[in-house]
TrEMBL record, chain A:
Keywords: Cytoplasm, Exosome, Nucleus, RNA-binding, rRNA processing. It comes from Ciona intestinalis (Transparent sea squirt). Pfam families: RNase_PH (PF01138), RNase_PH_C (PF03725). Belongs to the RNase PH family. It is found in: Cytoplasm; Nucleus, Nucleolus. SUPFAM superfamilies: Ribonuclease PH domain 2-like, Ribosomal protein S5 domain 2-like. One of its GO terms (molecular function) is mRNA 3'-UTR AU-rich region binding. The gene is LOC100183089. GO terms for biological process: exonucleolytic trimming to generate mature 3'-end of 5.8S rRNA from tricistronic rRNA transcript (SSU-rRNA, 5.8S rRNA, LSU-rRNA); nuclear mRNA surveillance; nuclear polyadenylation-dependent rRNA catabolic process; rRNA catabolic process; TRAMP-dependent tRNA surveillance pathway; U1 snRNA 3'-end processing; U4 snRNA 3'-end processing; U5 snRNA 3'-end processing. This is Ribosomal RNA-processing protein 43. The keyword Nucleus applies. Residues 31-166, 191-257 form the Exoribonuclease phosphorolytic domain. One of its GO terms (cellular component) is nucleolus.
Automatic annotation (TrEMBL), chain B:
This is Uncharacterized protein. InterPro entries: ExoRNase_PH_dom1 (IPR001247), ExoRNase_PH_dom2 (IPR015847), ExoRNase_PH_dom2_sf (IPR036345), PNPase/RNase_PH_dom_sf (IPR027408), Ribosomal_Su5_D2-typ_SF (IPR020568), RNase_PH (IPR050080). It comes from the Eukaryota. CDD domains: RNase_PH_RRP46. One of its GO terms (molecular function) is RNA binding. It comes from Ciona intestinalis (Transparent sea squirt). Keywords: Exosome, Nucleus, rRNA processing. Residues 19-134, 138-213 form the Exoribonuclease phosphorolytic domain. One of its GO terms (cellular component) is cytoplasmic exosome (RNase complex). One of its GO terms (biological process) is nuclear mRNA surveillance.
Automatic annotation (TrEMBL), chain C:
Residues 18-149 form the Exoribonuclease phosphorolytic domain. One of its GO terms (molecular function) is RNA binding. This is Putative exosome complex component RRP41. Non-catalytic component of the RNA exosome complex which has 3'->5' exoribonuclease activity and participates in a multitude of cellular RNA processing and degradation events. CDD domains: RNase_PH_RRP41. It is found in: Cytoplasm; Nucleus, Nucleolus. Component of the RNA exosome complex. The keyword Cytoplasm applies. Belongs to the RNase PH family. GO terms for cellular component: cytoplasmic exosome (RNase complex); nuclear exosome (RNase complex); nucleolus.
Length: 279, 235, 247
């Protein structure tokens, strides 16, 4: 019975919950779903992480390859993020070329890597102008239930953190790289950003960490990326109902709180491959 | 316009010289505008409300499709990212419920990008929608703000220079660039995009400065439309 | 490099007729109508089923009046193998695999019960270590059971290779690369029918019988492992209860 009501009148159904200050999945408006982080599940990847926020499941795998640097930046390595929202993660997505949301998400991750200066590109340089590392970070969503960007950011950062690059030297005579797998140095990550998403229901209610059904009926998704020093790295709000500055302030404060919680996760999985932890 | 932190010295350039716009630049489109902010200029064409394939129609409102075209080459992921902002703003500003089962097609062609591109594009879209006579709930007004560190200062908040609608040179020198879109009626925040590490109070400061700068842009809109209508009446 | 040591053990310590450790889980995703995750040794595959539903716009031409049609998409994560894959889906090998799996399940699913509909099978390989086709088929079977779609029987698949007169069951990546003939088959264990088989490599006609027997035994072993899982009986209760509407 309630399923039928939910399907025919989703907005009314949701309002009936909001009257009691609660959401259909029994969370309060500010509560965030349980976040789980597992580092190193894929051994063929140089770094990997699996993140679950409620039902949303995102997997990130990092593979390092050697390449020639670009002509514009001969001393810098390259990081290439890619967000994939395949048809398997939700009935919304149909098979075919990457949909708009995936492309926007990819650009978002790309912006984040540059702005937060996640990895020093100079660290990835082996021989200037000849040989640099390129890190391909492939983030795949396996189950889509809202807040994919939040999960993607956590997965990306955790996966990069677990990467250890072998030392490489360039053989002068043959001009080929020589890799020493036994000597591995872990990648230095400069900051640990965390993304928090909020949605607004009819300009009044701020919904933290919306699920897929909530994303469909609310408008104006706001994503705030902050780091442990309470710096705002990226604030993205691509339109929706107009909000006041106070509401924006509330969201920013909540995102700081969430950043602290997720940082506990990052610290707990500091050693890659075996450990996993939950909040 | 450059404002220093202590507000004692305000260096202003004559506002109208920075903005320029020509409405109804394209005869075939329902509405069009050639808009420029400083050196950045954008051409927008609006077609709509127009017919749509039945399977894509929405029964209670119109759809908004935005197409961002870069100056060179074909659209890439960067353009898709910016499209989302414009789409979000238009979906909120246009009275979509008045035109069910139709679609608005908005094409933005970047002519020259010398900084503050997103706000220039959104303002241009707003002018083009006015030219097309589309009913809107409010006018979205966009402003870009950049924060540049004063070279001597170590602290983050001491004497950062706040630049409104920065040029590309100023953008490259800044550590943080923010674009805000406000609605003209209540001055509430519609859309924002900020990148660059900053503290919340710097964020607030930028928001306030941007809000004040919207007055200028709104005045410009009003002047442009007045001119256009006056020219029409004379004929 | 020896595939079987003198004592009769394989490169990873198994006996020739021993399967790798199988771990599976059903109902992993909430969005899909049916989903399953299987690990065969290091090969990790996810399967998600959407359907039966109305045919999507671009596949309307494939609709049949008397049965449903099955659409399969195989995708391999770019980090799943030792060398990064440039294209995760739509490449030749992926399309090949999708077509094989589609054929397999068109024979196993009771398509007459769902006329004019479409069933989507999406497979995602997270980690690839040999016997990809088999792991995918096993995962898809579990996912179809989770989705409550009527099938004639379970479909279990296994692979085998022949070296030095001994057949090796459930080969991994290293054994695949060794260059011996590789035989994969999917069978319906209770009905004892082979619905799909593929042989790569060269063997003598006399050796075929041995390989087919080895694979059939391997499949029956996999069936025993999967069937024993309480997961299936638990999940059946959930599947039978009224399902919520999906858009």
């Amino acid at each position: 019975m309630e399923d039928i009501f939910k399907h025919i009148q989703p907005v009314e159904y949701y309002k009936s919950f909001l009257k009691e200050n609660i959401r259909p999945d029994t969370r309060t408006l500010q509560q965030i779903r349980k976040t789980t982080l597992n580092v190193g599940p894929i051994t063929t990847a140089d770094g990997s992480a699996l993140v679950k926020i409620g039902n949303t499941m995102v997997m990130c795998g990092v593979k390092a390859e050697l390449t020639q640097p670009t002509a514009e930046e001969p001393k810098k390595g390259i990081i290439v993020p890619n967000l994939d929202l395949p048809a398997l993660c939700s009935s919304k997505f149909k098979p075919g070329p990457p949909n708009t949301q995936a492309q926007v998400g990819t650009k978002f991750l790309d912006n984040l890597i540059k702005i937060a200066n996640l990895v020093n590109s100079e660290d990835l340089c082996i021989v200037p102008d000849k040989l640099v590392w390129v890190l391909y970070c492939d983030v795949t969503c396996l189950n889509y239930d809202g807040c994919v960007i939040d999960a993607a950011v956590v997965a990306l950062v955790a996966a990069l953190r677990s990467v250890s690059l072998p030392s490489v030297t360039l053989n002068e005579e043959t001009d080929t790289p020589v890799t020493n797998i036994n000597e591995k140095t872990p990648l230095t990550i400069n900051c640990l950003p965390v993304a928090s998403s909020f949605s607004f229901f009819e300009s009044e209610h701020i919904i933290t960490d919306p699920t897929l059904s909530e994303e469909d009926i609310t408008s104006g998704c706001l994503t705030v990326v902050s780091d442990e020093h309470e710096n705002l790295l990226l604030v993205d709000r691509p339109g929706g109902v107009s909000i006041t500055e106070d509401q924006l302030e509330i969201c920013i404060q909540r995102s700081f709180k969430r950043t602290k919680e997720v940082h506990k996760l990052y610290k707990a999985v500091h050693k890659p491959s075996e450990s996993n932890d939950q909040t | 316009m450059i404002m220093k932190d202590d507000m004692h010295e305000v260096v202003e350039q004559p506002p109208t010289s920075k903005f320029q716009c020509e409405m109804n630049a394209l005869k075939n489109a329902d509405g069009s505008a050639f808009y420029s902010q400083g050196e950045t200029s954008v051409m927008v064409a609006v077609y709509g409300p127009g017919d749509l394939k039945e399977t894509k129609q929405e029964i209670d409102k119109a759809l908004v499709e935005v197409d961002f075209r870069p100056k060179l080459g074909s659209p890439t992921v960067n353009e898709k990212y910016l499209e989302r902002f414009v789409q979000g703003v238009c979906e909120n500003a246009i009275m979509l419920a008045l035109h069910p089962r139709t679609a608005f097609a908005i094409i933005v062609q970047i002519m020259q990008d010398q900084g503050s591109l997103l706000s220039c594009a959104i303002n241009a879209v707003c002018v083009a929608l006015q030219d097309a006579g589309v009913s809107m709930k409010h006018l979205p007004v966009a402003v870009t703000v950049a924060l540049r560190k004063e070279s001597e200062s170590e602290l983050e908040d001491a004497t950062d220079v706040l630049i409104i609608n920065p040029t590309i040179k100023e953008e490259s020198e800044s550590f943080s660039i923010l674009t805000f879109v406000f609605d003209s009626v209540n001055k509430n925040l519609l859309c924002m995009h900020s990148q660059g590490p900053l503290l919340p109070k710097q964020h607030e400061r930028c928001l306030k400065a941007a809000k004040e700068a919207t007055e200028e842009v709104l005045k410009f809109f009003r002047d442009s439309v007045t001119q256009k209508v006056a020219a029409g009446l004379e004929l | 490099f020896e595939l079987i040591s003198d004592e009769g053990y394989r490169f990873d310590g198994r006996k020739p007729s021993e399967l790798r450790r199988v771990r599976c889980n059903m109902g992993v995703f909430t969005q899909a109508d049916g989903s399953a995750y299987i690990e065969q040794g290091n090969t990790k595959v996810l399967a998600a089923i959407y359907g039966p539903h109305e045919a999507s716009n671009n596949m309307r031409s494939r609709v049949c009046l008397d049965k449903c049609f099955i659409n399969c998409e195989f995708s391999q994560a770019m980090f799943s193998s030792a060398e990064r894959k440039k294209r995760s889906r739509g490449d030749r090998k992926g399309k090949d695999m999708s077509a094989h799996i589609k054929q397999t399940f068109e024979a196993a699913v009771r398509t007459q019960l769902y006329p004019r509909s479409q069933i989507d099978i999406y497979l995602q390989v997270l980690h690839s270590d040999g016997s990809l086709y088999c792991a995918c088929v096993n995962a898809a079977t579990l996912a179809l059971i989770d989705a409550g779609i009527a099938m004639k029987d379970y479909v279990c698949a296994c692979s085998a290779s022949l070296t030095k007169e001994t057949s090796l069951i459930d080969i991994n990546h290293v054994e695949e690369l060794a260059g011996c003939a590789e035989f994969s088959a999917a069978i319906m264990p209770k009905l004892d029918q082979i619905i799909y088989s593929e042989l790569n490599g060269r063997i003598h006609q006399d050796e075929l019988g041995q390989l087919v027997d080895a694979v059939t035994n391997g499949c029956k072993d996999i069936f025993a492992v999967i069937d024993r899982f309480e997961v299936i009986t638990d999940n059946t209760e959930i599947a039978v209860s009224p399902r919520s509407l999906h858009s």
